[in-house]
Known about the structure:
Blueprint: H1 6-44, H2 51-72, E1 76-79, E2 84-91, E3 94-101, E4 110-113, E5 122-123
Antiparallel strand pairs: 1-2, 2-3, 3-4, 4-5
Helix pairs in contact: 1-2
Amino acid sequence: MKIFTIDEANELLTLVKPKLLAVQSNYALIANLREPARAAAGASEFGGGMQGGTNYVKTLYEIGKLTTEIHDLGVQLKDYTSGLIDFPSLREGRVVLLCWQLGEGDFIEWWHEVEGGFAGRQPL
């Protein structure tokens, strides 16, 4: 597990934020592609297919790729739709999580205990 200082986490936000926006956008797209993908799956039983199925799979792949990139940076993605992420950090000798989500600005302002979750957020 990577441990971040607040400065390291804030610096990484500029790289992670566009990835979170892309994940969020792709999840919205998935909702619109579900029915065409089901139709494509049904048509495939008869040797056919539809463009909707391909787009659905491509979008799922893109989500997987982006989330892997985020995790490989050491960032914990907690909620895809809101863009909620955590950065493990040390506070008073114990591991805590620096907490940020899309729309909160350019700097991390919250932290919580590992077991505390979003509801246990406290200002830095």
